[in-house]
């Protein structure tokens, strides 16, 4: 598929191409953005890259220049010390974001803050030299605390400017009245700091404060931004709720040049977290001559299910829709809006051929139950190149697509009248199951599918409204569904073939070949057929009988492979599917290195596919910044894989279409692949993960299997392990899957990258 340039006049083709490129670039730089100014939206890094490093720390601020677009604004939440120095801290309680308790164990105080009694350690009780030894820590429990011992000191606004030299600075000011009670004058501080450093933005949720300082900033470079908090909260100086204040943007325009609103003001969500239509607030603000900035972007937040756990999709909905663009986004992960603005806006929707090949995993199983018609249709619509069917067999010997041989995983069988058909079959799995071959196809159709929930341990549920939607598919349905679709191929995955041959007396290899022939895959379609198995004997048999592309799946994490095992694989396979941790090795959710496996296998002429990629941020090491696109980019641009096996083909397909893909060596910094292992030296030795045992090496014993058995005619005794007479006492009771073992022992987290510092 693809490659359709037939010789001809290459230079005129090139010229046309260049001309097109120029046209595109001009179109994009001029008036493409629906912001107030027409310029691209601003990126504001809240406390720096605070999704990874302690908020407002040197690591967090410095990494922005490496991992975010040029011109990214650094945000500082200003607090005043006893000696009137402005410091950057995400929380007014120092005990929330520093280790101050260890230096001033009797420092807890209770003060009224906006009328609410608040207890903790406050900046107003300390002068700058008191705070000199205090270090910053991660304030959000779900993020990594691995940088808490890196000696990251509290920074004053001046420190940030001197040590980081931001191209743009945003100061957020809150609690003016509180400081006044402690004889500190925030207005005075703001006026004096703006004389020594360039302040590009000054925001506050306090109307009286902004109005008071506004005249001093009239006709300066500094933009004054009124910050809206949640609609029900009362603005302290007027006693009116922010919801009420929103009704009079003209009033805001008398002292501010813009507003900052929680993102739900723009895209509200239902109580069950689905997106409602956008409000008119962006165009209203623009009509009133106000810029509008959206706050609270964090890749590790729970955002609406409509985005399929893809933070880049969320960001694009605020800047790249047909109606409006906000003028800037305030985020803990500035890499994501950098990608959105620089490489993913105004993308052509049509599929792009070539590498990487996007292969679905049970269809678009991040959005719909595995292997249902809905999951397959969505995968096609989302731009997958290849959709996959893991073949299982029913009692009446019908081949179906089902991600597990055990119906308990994928269906509501435990709540059905078939729930007594439990067997223990150690050859298939250690726990009791209700297997596909113990129900007929008609019986299976009486069940409902269950959406996969691989990360439910972290309460990250997939598309709850559709958790039981869709119809099960037979292999023949799947083949018919795929045949006229804009796909480059299909992948049929076959496991337990030897068990099927010996115990069920069905030769699944022959059965799959006839199903493909019956569906016209030999003569009606250009779709490429791929067969995947972890069992080399299955692939060997296919190789003897067909010309299909054969994919050997390695089902354990290995760090290397001995030469003879690669030679063995090469004898029966065209491609290898590798667990993603075999490519980027991971220790306690930090990457440690890129193994040499991909180039080794490619050198032998094998394509390499990485599996299985998911959007949920907990499925990724911290290095990937809780952004599935950063992970995909690492596997494609960094590790050079030929394909990606993913539960969210839409995210991978959009990656393939990104407008920076063709920039080669001129790619912007935030589109460079992460460097594996670069975060480890940024941790104090005490915080580094313990060394791991070396990764196992694939050897010939792992690869070579006895030849595929012949299926004999049924005899009286089949020899399958007999089921126990009664169900075991602890039968699995739900269809929930096990979480990937990688995460079992770990706290909920996030992650990221960084090539600099030190
Ligand atoms: C961003 O800044 C770096 C370093 O100053 C520079 O090399 C690069 O060309 C800039 N990129 C763009 C797109 O302006
Ligand atoms: C700090 O405050 C945030 C927001 O109020 C809260 O989610 C977090 O748990 C607090 N962290 C600590 C260490 O107290
Ligand atoms: C800071 O406060 C401490 C007491 O907390 C005091 O000993 C010290 O002299 C003060 N330093 C300055 C520079 O004011
Ligand atoms: C605070 O500082 C501003 C500007 O220097 C000044 O106009 C104002 O009077 C001061 N307020 C108090 C309460 O001292
Ligand atoms: C800013 O200056 C303009 C005239 O240059 C004046 O009309 C306006 O009222 C001033 N705004 C504020 C907030 O002082
Ligand atoms: C705001 O309202 C509360 C009671 O609702 C009142 O106690 C307080 O004085 C009011 N503050 C202002 C600034 O009007
Ligand atoms: C909005 O505020 C402006 C300026 O303060 C005022 O003139 C106008 O009456 C207000 N409009 C409404 C609907 O409250
Ligand atoms: C979000 O998803 C729900 C459920 O699929 C759908 O009804 C709704 O229209 C979507 N919202 C938007 C704004 O696309
Ligand atoms: C399921 O099928 C296997 C293989 O035919 C058979 O050995 C087993 O007894 C069946 N289990 C039940 C509960 O029917
Ligand atoms: C699922 O199957 C039922 C019954 O065969 C059919 O009515 C329905 O349209 C199918 N749903 C989809 C989404 O194809
Ligand atoms: C395609 O092959 C199938 C089975 O091999 C056959 O039944 C069918 O007639 C063929 N169709 C065409 C158009 O050749
Ligand atoms: C091959 O690896 C397996 C475990 O993966 C090990 O048990 C076996 O000893 C190894 N064989 C050789 C020849 O190294």
TrEMBL record:
The answer to keyword Signal applying to this record is yes
Listed under catalytic activity are:
a sn-glycero-3-phosphodiester + H2O = an alcohol + sn-glycerol 3-phosphate + H(+)
First and last residue of the signal peptide: 1-27
Name the EC number(s).
3.1.4.46
Which Gene Ontology MF annotations are present?
A: glycerophosphodiester phosphodiesterase activity
Q: Where is the composition biased (Pro residues)?
A: 722-731
Q: GP-PDE domain: which residues?
A: 41-341, 356-656
* PROSITE patterns in UniProt: GP_PDE (PS51704)
Q: Which GO terms describe its biological process?
A: glycerol metabolic process; lipid metabolic process
Sorted alphabetically, which InterPro entries does this protein's record hold? GP_PDE_dom (IPR030395), PLC-like_Pdiesterase_TIM-brl (IPR017946)
Per its UniProt record, what PANTHER family does this chain match?
A: GLYCEROPHOSPHODIESTER PHOSPHODIESTERASE GDPD5-RELATED (PTHR43620:SF7), GLYCEROPHOSPHORYL DIESTER PHOSPHODIESTERASE (PTHR43620)
Protein family membership:
Belongs to the glycerophosphoryl diester phosphodiesterase family.
- What protein name applies here? glycerophosphodiester phosphodiesterase
């Amino acid at each position: 598929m693809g490659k359709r340039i037939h010789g001809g006049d290459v230079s005129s083709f090139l010229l046309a191409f260049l001309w097109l490129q120029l046209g595109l670039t001009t179109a994009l730089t001029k008036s493409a953005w629906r912001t107030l100014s027409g310029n691209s939206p601003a990126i504001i890094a809240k406390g720096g890259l605070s999704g990874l490093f302690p908020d407002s720390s040197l690591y967090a601020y410095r990494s922005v220049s490496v991992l975010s677009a040029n011109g990214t604004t650094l945000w500082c939440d200003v607090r005043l010390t006893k000696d009137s120095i402005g410091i950057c801290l995400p929380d007014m309680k120092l005990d929330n974001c520093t280790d101050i308790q260890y230096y001033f164990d009797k420092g807890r105080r209770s003060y009224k803050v906006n009328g609410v009694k608040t207890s903790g350690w406050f900046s107003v009780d300390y002068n700058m030299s008191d705070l000199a030894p205090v270090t910053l820590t991660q304030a959000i429990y779900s993020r990594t605390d691995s940088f808490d011992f890196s000696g990251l000191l509290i920074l004053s606004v001046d420190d940030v400017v001197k040590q980081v030299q931001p191209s743009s600075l945003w100061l957020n000011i809150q609690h003016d009245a509180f400081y006044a009670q402690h004889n500190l004058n925030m207005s005075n501080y703001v006026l004096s700091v703006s004389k020594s450093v360039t302040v590009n933005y000054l925001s506050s949720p306090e109307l009286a404060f902004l109005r008071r300082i506004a005249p001093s900033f009239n006709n300066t470079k500094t933009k004054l931004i009124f910050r809206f908090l949640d609609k029900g909260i009362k603005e302290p100086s007027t006693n009116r709720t922010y919801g009420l204040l929103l009704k009079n943007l003209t009033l805001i325009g008398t002292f501010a040049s813009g507003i900052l609103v929680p993102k739900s003001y723009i895209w509200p969500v239902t109580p069950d977290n689905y997106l409602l239509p956008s409000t008119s607030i962006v165009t209203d603000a623009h009509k009133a001559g106000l810029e509008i900035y959206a706050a609270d972007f964090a890749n590790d937040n729970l955002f609406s299910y409509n985005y399929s756990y893809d933070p880049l999709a969320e960001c694009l909905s605020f800047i790249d829709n047909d109606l409006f663009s906000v003028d800037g986004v305030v985020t803990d992960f500035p890499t994501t809006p950098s990608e959105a603005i620089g490489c993913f806006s105004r993308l052509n929707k049509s599929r792009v051929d070539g590498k990487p090949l996007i292969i679905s995993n049970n269809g678009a199983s991040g959005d719909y139950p595995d292997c249902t018609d809905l999951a397959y249709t969505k995968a096609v619509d989302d731009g997958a190149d290849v959709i996959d069917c893991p073949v299982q067999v029913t009692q009446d010997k019908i081949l179906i697509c089902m991600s597990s041989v055990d119906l308990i995983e994928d269906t509501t069988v435990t709540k059905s009248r078939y729930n007594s058909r439990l067997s223990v079959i150690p050859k298939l799995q250690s726990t009791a199951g209700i297997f596909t071959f113990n129900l007929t196809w008609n019986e299976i159709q009486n069940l409902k599918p269950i959406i996969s929930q691989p990360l439910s341990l972290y309460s990250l549920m997939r598309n709850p409204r559709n958790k039981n939607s869709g119809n099960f598919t037979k292999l023949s349905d799947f083949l018919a569904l795929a045949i006229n679709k804009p796909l480059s191929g299909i992948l049929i995955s076959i496991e337990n073939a030897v068990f099927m041959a010996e115990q069920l007396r069905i030769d699944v290899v022959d059965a799959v070949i006839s199903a493909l022939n019956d569906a016209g895959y030999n003569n009606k379609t250009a779709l490429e057929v791929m067969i995947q198995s972890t069992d080399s004997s299955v692939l060997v048999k296919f190789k003897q009988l067909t010309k299909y592309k054969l994919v050997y799946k390695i089902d354990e994490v290995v760090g290397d492979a001995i030469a003879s095992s690669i030679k063995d694989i090469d004898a029966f396979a065209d491609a290898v599917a590798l667990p993603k941790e075999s490519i980027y090795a991971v220790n306690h959710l930090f990457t440690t290195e890129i193994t040499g496996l991909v180039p080794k296998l490619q050198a032998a002429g094998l394509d390499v596919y990485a599996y299985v990629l998911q959007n949920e941020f907990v499925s990724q090491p911290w290095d990937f910044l809780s952004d599935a696109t950063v992970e995909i980019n690492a596997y494609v641009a960094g590790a050079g894989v030929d394909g990606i096996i993913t539960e969210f083909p839409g995210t991978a397909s959009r990656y393939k279409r990104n407008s920076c893909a063709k920039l080669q060596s001129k790619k912007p910094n935030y589109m460079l692949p992460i460097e594996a292992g670069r975060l480890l030296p940024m941790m104090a030795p005490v915080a580094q993960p313990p060394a791991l045992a070396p990764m196992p090496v694939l050897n010939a014993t792992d690869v070579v299997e006895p030849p595929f058995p012949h299926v004999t005619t049924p005899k009286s005794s089949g020899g399958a392990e007999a089921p126990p007479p009664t169900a075991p006492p602890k039968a699995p009771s739900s269809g929930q899957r096990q979480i990937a073992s990688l995460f079992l022992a770990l706290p909920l987290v996030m992650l990221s990258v960084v090539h600099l510092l030190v």
